[in-house]
Amino acid sequence: MRPITLVTCAAAAALAKPVDFVVIGAGTSGLVVANRLSEDPSVTVAVIEPGGDERDNPLVYTLDGWYQVQGTHVDWSYDLKGPPGPDGKPRKLAAGKGWGGTSLINGMTYIRGNTAEFDAWEDLGNPGWNWEALLPYYKRSELFTVPTEAQIAAGATYDEDYHGFEGHVRTGYPSTVKNTSFSPNVTQTWEGLGFEHNLDLNSGSVHGFSVSPSTVDPEQDIRWDSARANYYPIEQRRNIKIIQGTVKRITWAEKRGRPPKKGITANGVEYLTPDGKTKTLAVKKEVVVSAGALRTPLVLEGSGIGNPRILKSLGIDLVVDLPGVGENLIDQTNTVQAWIANFEASSTQFQAFVTAADLFGDDLPAVEASTRESLSSWSQAIVDASGEGALDPAAVETQLRLQHDLIFKKNVTLAEVISMGAANAGLGNGDTPVFGSAYWNLLPFSRGSVHLRSADAIDDPAIDPRYNLVDFDLQASVAAGKLVRKFWASQPIAGSVSGQVVPGPDVLPEDATEEEWESFHRAALSPNFHPLGTASMMARDLGGVVDPELRIYSTANVRVVDASVLPTQFSGHLTATLYAVAERASDFIRGKAKRN
After folding, report:
1. Which residues span the domain enclosing 455?
2. Which residues of this protein are catalytic (predicted)?
């Protein structure tokens, strides 16, 4: 790891003075905001981040290191509450620690989602938040490299109308995407099952199958994380610095109990240095919290923003009563099946997105009706699981009903299947060629939470995703698993498959019962590492934490810009949307954007 040389003597003196903006977290979103704000040389920006500079870490910048880096010092690797994994140990939720945040350790997939999913944000109290509003920001953030002829032959296609060519985030296809015997077999098998090739998964419709771009520099074949995109090129600016430290809380200008009509004002940030000293950095304009979906709620609770009952139990004085802080945690569950297959080694990954109609076929009307009738009981189960007066059943049901309409009325995609050489996911079996599919329910109804365990334990939060709290989530995962097995048993791909190795036939036989399918998915699930929603952009009476300009309710100058504000899951991967939301947030802060 590159040594952290943050400040010269002159810069240290400057940082001792108040700064205009403090960004909490040098992650995927925080570095976008810091970059954009520091474009104005008249303002000063400080970013406070517990992790360090990882630009020389090969597990970070090499394309095949993303699944090896998890569990290292670059990963918070949080323990989860709930049932343990197959090894009997707590399941872990990966989250990036360092300049670039989770963009340092993710799978690099760049996929946005379906138009209707983003349009639905408006229905949660966010006028002006929709696909059309986000598309210019998706394009502004992106520097797309068109695929080569060989990559197009392997299945990589695009529509230039939906891509940006002048942004900071490089996207494209690594040289390892090539046309081997695997690609035509995948293409022809999906087509044989009635699915169409999708010209561009970033066009606002992801239904069908294709090869998606990644956040990579195709010329150098390296990962293009947020630090490479947004910080390293501008780190010589005199008005921006990264301070290594762990933020404990935001400090406030007003006395408690006397909030002005415009909201209380932050006047600084208190943080802990690596050597254990507590320091405070004064802020003149705004605090932007970009610590991520798992840490942002902890910063807010430490600052007195959250559920009064929880804060009282932690011995923290209440500043703003917002019970939604730390609630509405939504993550997906990932499951893998793999086979021995006689294909040339391939790093090409095919994404397939399928709807509820694709999964349930003739049973769709019955599934739609039974799930609609269950929304009220699911809402109550979510409220009961959270406890502590955090949620309102009617508000939760409003959210679930909106999601139900997306799935069954607007026919958005419900499951994603990635087919690949299993070595890409660390499932290789020596010299034996192993190929398979990772898949997940994109739109789980289950909701979890993340909260401080104690006022001084921000690095050891209580995270409970409550996977499969709602039984339909398991039902959807099982349906996707059956489709995966059908895919690998269909021609022409089946002609090169000789046996399933994950799971073995003792776990999931060919004639597996419904109970065996469910048991396998409960035991084999792993987090999909797409947590969001814990400081949601929603109407306050729905449990929202930030308004449509991402300002925390009842505050005058504190915003949240990271995955915690995303109110719903969507049929994409987080990275693309986080970059777009951060770009738009930067315009709000600078007064360059309007909601409508």
Report:
1. 333-527
2. 530, 573
Residue 202's pLDDT is 98
| Pairing mode, strands 92-93 and 333-341 | unpaired
Task: Detail the residues annotated as belonging to a binding site for FAD.
Answer: 28-29, 102, 247
pLDDT at 1: 34
Give 522-533 pLDDT, tens digit per residue: 999 999 999 999
Summary mean pLDDT of the chain: 93
Question: What CATH number did the domain enclosing 511 receive?
Answer: 3.30.560.10
Active-site positions read 530, 573
Please state, in angstroms and rounded to a whole number, the distance separating the CA atoms of residues 36 and 21: 12
3-state secondary structure of 1: coil
- Whether 572 and 206 have beta carbons less than 8 Å apart is answered as yes
Taking the C-alpha atoms of residue 454 and residue 190, their distance in angstroms, rounded to an integer, is 50
* Residue with the two structure tokens 């039902």: 475
Which residues make Cβ contacts (< 8 Å) with residue 111, sequence separation at least 6? 201, 202, 206, 212, 351, 572, 573, 576
Residue ranges at the known binding site: 28-29, 102, 247
The DSSP output letter for 318 is: -
pTM assigned to the model: 0.95
Q: What are phi and psi of 75, to 5 degrees?
A: -125, 125
H helices of 216-363, in order, are 226-230, 296-302, 308-314, 356-360
Q: How far apart are CA 17 and CA 443, in angstroms?
A: 46
- Cis status of the peptide bond prior to 433, with omega within 30 of 0: no
CA–CA separation, 566 vs 399, rounded Å?
Answer: 13
Q: Is the pLDDT of residue 257 over 80?
A: no
* Spatial separation of the C-alpha atoms in residues 485 and 501, rounded to whole Å: 12
The residues, any chain, with a CB within 8 Å of residue 18's CB and separated by 6 or more, are 268, 281, 282, 283, 284
**Is residue 499 assigned to a domain?**
yes
In the structure encoding, which two tokens stand for residue 511, read together? 């004639």
Quote the number of domains for the chain: 1
Token pair for 61: 């910048």
- Nearest CA among 280, 298, 329, 245 for reference residue 454: 298
Residues 544, 380: Cα–Cα separation, whole Å: 18
What count of residues does the chain have? 596
Q: How far is CA 260 from CA 106, 194, 264, 555, 556, in A?
A: 42, 60, 6, 9, 9
Residue 86 lies in a domain: no
DSSP 469: S
In a domain, 92, yes or no: no
Percent over 90 (pLDDT), the chain? 86
In sign, the C-alpha dihedral spanning 84, 399, 289, 237 is positive
Domain annotation covers residue 537: no
**484 three-class SS:** helix
| Cβ atoms of residues 206 and 573 within 8 Å | no
Cα–chain-centroid distance for residue 245?
23
The pLDDT value recorded for residue 3 is: 33
